[in-house]
Amino acid sequence: MSKLVSVSLLTVTCLYGLLVALGVGISLACGVSILPALIVGIIVLIIQFIVSPWLMDLTTRWLYKADFNKEIPDYLKKFITEVCEKNKIKYPKIGIINDGAPNCYTYGRTKRDARIIITRGVFDLLSEEEVKAVIGHELGHVAHYDMLVMTVAQLIPIVFYAIYEGCINSTTSSSDDDKGYSIAIAVIAYVLYIISQYIVLWLSRTREYFADSFSVEETRNPNALAEALVKIGFGLTTSDEKVEEKEESEEKDKKGKKDKKEKKTSAAAVNGLGIFDKKTSKTLVACSSTDGMSTKVSKKSIKNAMKWEKWNYWAKWYEFNSTHPLISKRLERITERSKEFKQEPYITFDLKKDANYGKMFAFELMLVLLPTIAVICAIVFALLMITNDGCQTYKIGMCISGLVAVVFEFFVLLRKYNKKHFKKATVEELLGETNVSGITPVPCEVKGNIIGRGDPGYVFSEDFVIRDKTGIVFLDYNQPLWLINKIFAIFKAKTFIDKEIIIKGWYRRSPVPYIEIYTMETDGKVKKVYTYMFKFIGLLIGIIGFTVLFFI
Question: Is 250 a catalytic residue?
Fold first, then answer.
């Protein structure tokens, strides 16, 4: 705990030091105080701090159907009570979302008014010890005052951005000399805004490690937390045989009602204090037995799923932009403590890298950046030509730069939507793919059952979760227009739940594993997603348009 306090104090001091340095610089350069921006930022943050828990309560009740009056199992109630008494925490308000995804998250202000939201899947798919480990993680956030600390830290990026916007807006009414100062300050403020954002993300990731450590200390069972993280973070089943045995048992004992045990399973919408980052929690539960008597996930399957995070450079980039560490890193941290509690190390990643993924990353990064670079070059070229009154040269330069940008984007599109061969695959096979990213997909065909929406209980979620006998993975349903997606979510999505389906699409990781849907086949009917075609036609029009402008 003392180490967490030291790290937090040092980080927050660094953030506020940047703000003070900028304030002194502005004051010396132009005699202007940043106090108004600081006051505005503080007011906004205080309002957010006060109102956010109440708004979250409304959201979880109305849109996610969370029940704050539902009883939780006695073993969990006893565990929470003991941890709260030991750490001087008021017993938190518990909300249950009736969805099969095992996930949970925490929000509130202090130790006195914390809320913990738990999905039904936590109880359905995890053992009692694993449930306690996950809830222990959330209680760690409460015990460490993470809600308050992160609120204080997030003030600095808000103030930097307010200074940036204020300076940009002031340039319209400033003299030429003052305008130069305003632009310079705006650039510095925006750079510091970016830097401070990444510092806040780093602080968040650090506090996640400490929340894991808190759970380990309170449960004295690091392997339970590790197993729970695998089941929530990687979409792997225990084994085909055990799934089949479970189904056969339910067939006999329940007389055909086994499907009721496989209710909608998808990812909970979590904030920065959830078991996973909201941006990276869309996948992905491991299917253990649904009676809470969870078995162990195959170590071979776990290592295969870890390969992408360990070897692919995109994983490091996505973690850099995330509030949570990579699952593999958390597993290794937890595994280091296994011997401390007289347990066998949960997982040892001993696979050898089978390719040079640095070259792939560099190539894909180039593909991503080239269209933007072309646009920037076009803007710079245009400004230079306008200054020199070179209108014709300006037009030619803009056309060439625009054409280059669109052509590069077209090549990116062809790579992102490779349609050469949709190979039949299982979820487990897809999770073992390492040469995959948001740019380079694996065209695949997966057969399974739709078991829930992408966001549990959320009526506006158009996405799905599919389950085969090896695992579960998120399905991204994305038509070209937002309105079409929402109409589908409200009126059509529920008709696909609990149906066997064949999905053709593109498996990606960014960093969450998911399949972007191309076609969905169920009951002999095929539904197609037209985003690929829409983008393809749009870029072709762009290429033709810039070519025509060049010759006019």
Answer: no
